[in-house]
Amino acid sequence: MRTDIGRLTKDWDEINSVVPYGVGIVGRICQTLFEKVDLNIPFVIDRDPQKQNTTWMGAPVISFEEAKEKLQGYKIVVMTGHDAYGHISTFLEEQGLEEFKDFCNVGQFMSDWFWSAKRMNCVFHVDMTITTRCTLNCRNCNLFIPYHKEKLDFSFEELKKSIDLFFERVDFVTYFGLIGGETFLHPELTKYIQYLGEHYRDQIGRITVVTNGTVSPTDELLDAIKKYEMYLSVSDYTDVVPYGEKMDRFIDRVREKDIDYARNDSIVWTDFGFPEHPVKRTPEELEYHLDSCRPNWNALHGGRFYYCNVSWCAEQSGRFRLQPEDYLELERIDPDDKEACREIVKLSRGTSSFCRICGGCGKDNTNYVKTGVQM
């Protein structure tokens, strides 16, 4: 395994001011973490004219053109997702700035600076698959659900144990996702959401529950999601699967409860290859793939922390066996030993043995497929 930890130049250790780039969704979610530390923000950059002349954490939002004259001595932290970061990093390099020296993505900043400056172990994105049962049977499901020999609901006690082990050893997670299968099929989902919200909400920037909108939720479930300010990510496959009326009713109920949500009807899928035609790469191709993919979604299952949730699902399907270096047994890590807990952060920015045969979601995978096509 290799890891991205420690890629920032040494002078990042001495800073107490940064310039965030981007005030979109990631910026809003990361605000919780930034508020926990004494970090000066003189101004924020955003290329959207509608966001300029507003403020973020009290700092003015300005264009890059206006910021150029003020950047001397400041480091830039790009507050965007994986895809947008690629475009912004290219733009910044065209302006003569160097990645890891002059700027970095927020995941790198969380992993490195929060450790060196604040002794905080922070992870960017963790997903937990709570069920492998689903109402759909998507051919290119990136969790390989159609290929799982046994469809399971993981018990509340098992999920609770993993969560407790993890948050005893990690200070903050920007995104924590509950995914499936179809999450709303889990019979104890409400109970789990209540536990997660009650005990660990202040250690998480955003808790996201992913659903395809095919299962009608109870009022109790929606009330719990609302109470703990969770986010519903609704994958809309109605252009392929005929459940439009059911989806509309689902969205109406979410709106009635005033829950923060997104109806995602333009999701881009790529073919990961596995298990029908796993990718074959030369060592050079593998190196390029590892540099370009970096999915930023780790996994938590069965008391173990994994680099990639996709790799866990590949093993769960029974068609791939992970190596011991692909995960950490959390019970073996002393929660009072910060250095030992640092191994979780290192793996979060690492790799998996599954990477060598997985098409992945990086710029090197252009095998685009139609979203939601059923087996």
CATH hierarchy, class of the largest domain: Alpha Beta
**N-end to C-end Cα span:** 34 Å
By CATH, the superfamily of the largest domain comes out as: Aldolase class I
Structural class: alpha/beta
Largest sheet: 8 strands, mixed
- Looking at the structure, the CATH topology of the largest domain is TIM Barrel
Question: How many separate helices?
Answer: 11
Q: Into which percent range does the helicity of residues fall? A: 25-40%
Can you tell me the number of structural domains?
Answer: 2
Question: Approximately how much beta-strand content do the residues carry?
Answer: 15-25%
Radius of gyration: 21 Å
Q: What low-confidence regions span 5 or more consecutive residues with pLDDT below 50?
A: none
Mean of all residue-level pLDDT scores: 94
Q: Which descriptor suits the 3D outline?
A: globular
Commentary on this structure:
- This protein has two domains: 10-114, NAD(P)-binding Rossmann-like Domain (Rossmann fold), CATH 3.40.50; 122-369, Aldolase class I (TIM Barrel), CATH 3.20.20.70.
- Strands 11-10-9-8-7-13-14-15 form an eight-stranded mixed sheet, with helices on both faces.
- The radius of gyration is 21 Å and the shape is globular.
- The chain has eleven helices and 16 strands.
- Strand 10, helix 8 (244-256) and strand 11 form a beta-alpha-beta unit.
- It has 375 residues and is α/β, with parallel strands linked by helices.
- Helices cover 31% and strands 18% of the residues.
